[in-house]
Give the backbone structure.
Amino acid sequence: NAGVTQTPKFQVLKTGQSMTLQCAQDMNHEYMSWYRQDPGMGLRLIHYSVGAGITDQGEVPNGYNVSRSTTEDFPLRLLSAAPSQTSVYFCASSPGLNSPLHFGNGTRLTVT
Amino acid sequence: GESVGLHLPTLSVQEGDNSIINCAYSNSASDYFIWYKQESGKGPQFIIDIRSNMDKRQGQRVTVLLNKTVKHLSLQIAATQPGDSAVYFCAENWGPGYSTLTFGKGTMLLVSP
């Protein structure tokens, strides 16, 4: 199993550009989520999904959209990038509530 | 305070020592706790978890202790190795759903040969 795969590993955007961060998992996990990791803070939840067709907002959802059309994929879209979105983004999945999250290796995004 | 990559509390140990990393959690309603290891440039990696109906749980070279009275969690690593050098952070789930999982900022463990 590859686990959780994120692409790209690095990305530089100009303010106002849009892009999609890809996330795929091959463990048949129902739960998937996106976090951002910034210096001085713990991981913060952006959006999550408890199954295909179901998404919900986390702690810091503004400026991001998600969709979950399949169990395997959970892309994160930045609608109009801002410097405040410069961060490392992690996708995670788990088989259920109160089970450990499995993380991808992250996408390091810089917005200039 | 703690931060990822900046001003993180740091624990420096010699290879072969036992390491203890501490975490003060915030919510007395939390009933599930996880320890993660994060190496530079990688995603967090699950180490061990514990539920609130337990005080102690052991894994391979690791032990997690939970003290609910003082809201304290610790991770003990036996016979620490250079490959254990990483940032370690705890997470607590204080509510009934997925959105109530809250992560700490981490402690950097440095292991010298």
About this structure: Residues 85 and 113 of chain B are 11 Å apart (CA to CA). Confidence is low (pLDDT under 50) at residues 1-5 of chain B. The first strand of chain B starts at residue 10 and ends at 14.
